[in-house]
TrEMBL record:
PANTHER family: BCDNA.GH03377. InterPro entries: Gfo/Idh/MocA-like_OxRdtase_N (IPR000683), Gfo/Idh/MocA_oxidrdct_glycsds (IPR050463), GFO_IDH_MocA-like_dom (IPR055170), NAD(P)-bd_dom_sf (IPR036291). Residues 151-296 form the GFO/IDH/MocA-like oxidoreductase domain. Transmembrane segments: none annotated. The lineage of its organism: Bacteria, Bacillati, Actinomycetota, Actinomycetes, Kitasatosporales. This is Gfo/Idh/MocA family oxidoreductase. One of its GO terms (molecular function) is oxidoreductase activity. Residues 14-131 form the Gfo/Idh/MocA-like oxidoreductase N-terminal domain. Keywords: Oxidoreductase.
Length: 408
């Protein structure tokens, strides 16, 4: 599966990517950068990219450094020089592509949310489990876990610096839908996106809450709202959050905003808000976690900083202090610049590529797994169910832990 090169370079790991717009550009940067910054056991090779428009996919291959272009994702999955398939398309295609790639003997990285429904996510998690028996690995692209300050927050919580977690408070706010004339892109159509702010932004903050607290949500109480119910139909192609519309309008079939509370397995309380309707908030993912011995707070718009309060310190000098997460001993920082030379959004994708390559080389399950992605999907479904019943508390099915005896 891997080629060993005679010049002493690490063996190649051929990557094939499907979709080449917003996430396609971000992932390309991650794949190009990871091996230049980190000492990797395998060398990611950007073998081929797939899209549906021949001229556009060729241009994307040239721009982002892919050796070949395909106009059908099936042809990309079938290529001998592709050992890992990276899925950067809207949610309606994730399940079909991921399952086909795993069954074709490829490792898979799939963008979030894992799927558009629990049923699809279950099929993907089952395919990943079957593929695992053949040494194949699957991971979901919840890249915010790989912001160094977030990874460090997880480390502090796992080390017990906060004690038992009592509160998780997370908001993720953007404002690109405030304009009622922003066109009806796939992100506003249920058949393509599954849900709106909920699946787009809510999926990230549900994953972060469960990752940071180290435990699943067991129930939610939710409200959803669609403030602008009709928008101009798309004129031409959209990419990321850019699009232009025509004069005819069509129905918005997803939520603009989601607010919900939740309970974690330990009894800790969680509060969530996801909106694409918050003027002035561009990519404002903010979280605060309060434990019995301290608190942490994080703001993605100041992503090199982690605020930490140690409640054991004398009250007269205690308070939130700002940790600049750029020291070599902080997660991922050993390979980057000297302290204080800050990182940004794009670095999370290099960290994602690094972690997946290391997992593939060692044959260990990378996180977040498809099972983690499925658990997020169950929370999103419970949020929709609760919102449909005027916020009635709705349990989230949580699989029983694997008995210790059965663990490998
Ligand atoms: N991790 C993050 O921070 C983050 C940010 C934005 C989007 N996303 C996720 O990434 C995925 C893609 O979002 P995006 O913002 O890149 O969207 P986008 O609209 O910018 O790009 C989608 C790409 O998929 C292609 N595509 C669509 N259907 C296809 C098909 N059947 N076959 C081949 N190509 C197809 C489009 O041509 C385009 O290149 C979504 O799941 C989204 O939720 C994640």
């Amino acid at each position: 599966m891997e080629r060993t090169d005679s010049d002493g370079a690490p063996p190649a790991l051929g990557v094939g990517m499907i979709g080449y717009a917003f996430m396609g550009a971000a992932h390309s940067q991650g794949w190009r950068t990871a091996a230049r910054v980190f000492d990797l056991p395998l060398r990611p090779v950007l073998a081929a990219v797939a899209g549906r428009d021949a001229a556009a996919v060729r241009a994307a291959a040239h721009r982002h450094g892919w050796a070949a272009a395909e106009t059908d994702w099936r042809a990309l999955v079938a290529r001998d020089d592709v050992q890992l398939v990276d899925i950067c398309t809207p949610g309606d295609s994730h399940a079909e592509i991921a399952i086909a790639a795993l069954e074709a003997g490829k490792h898979v990285l799939c963008e979030k949310p894992l799927a558009n429904s629990v049923a699809e996510a279950e099929a993907m998690a089952a395919a990943a489990e079957r593929a695992r028996e053949h040494g194949l690995l699957a991971m979901v692209g919840f890249n915010y876990r790989r912001v160094p300050a977030v990874a460090y927050a997880r480390r502090l919580i796992a080390e017990g610096r906060l004690g038992a977690v009592r509160h998780v408070r997370v908001t993720y706010l953007q404002d690109w839908l405030v304009d009622p004339d922003f066109p009806l892109t796939w992100r506003l159509e249920r058949e393509h996106a599954g849900s709106g702010a909920l699946g787009d932004l809510g999926a990230h903050i549900v994953d972060l809450a469960q990752f940071l607290a180290g435990e699943p949500l067991v129930g939610v109480s939710a409200q959803l709202e669609t403030f602008v119910r009709e928008r101009p139909l798309l004129a031409g192609a959209s990419a990321g959050l850019s699009a232009s519309g025509g004069s005819d309008r069509g129905p918005v079939t997803v939520d603009d905003a989601a607010v919900f509370t939740g309970r974690l397995a330990s009894g800790a309380l969680a509060v969530f808000e996801a909106s694409r309707m918050a003027p002035g908030r561009k990519n404002a993912l903010r979280l605060e976690i309060n434990g019995e011995r301290g608190s942490i707070a994080f703001d993605l718009e100041r992503l090199n900083e982690l605020m930490f309060h140690d409640h054991a310190e004398p009250a007269v000098t205690a308070g939130f202090r700002r940790i600049l997460v750029t020291e070599a001993d902080h997660p991922y920082l050993e390979a980057w610049w000297p302290p204080g030379h800050a990182l940004g959004y794009e670095h999370t994708f290099a960290h994602q590529a690094r972690d997946l390559v290391v997992a593939v080389a060692s044959g260990t399950q990378p996180e977040p797994s498809f099972a983690d992605g499925l658990q997020v999907q169950r929370v999103l479904a419970a949020v929709e169910e609760s919102a449909g019943k005027n916020a009635v508390y709705t349990p989230v099915p949580v699989p029983a832990p694997v008995p210790a005896r059965a663990q490998v």
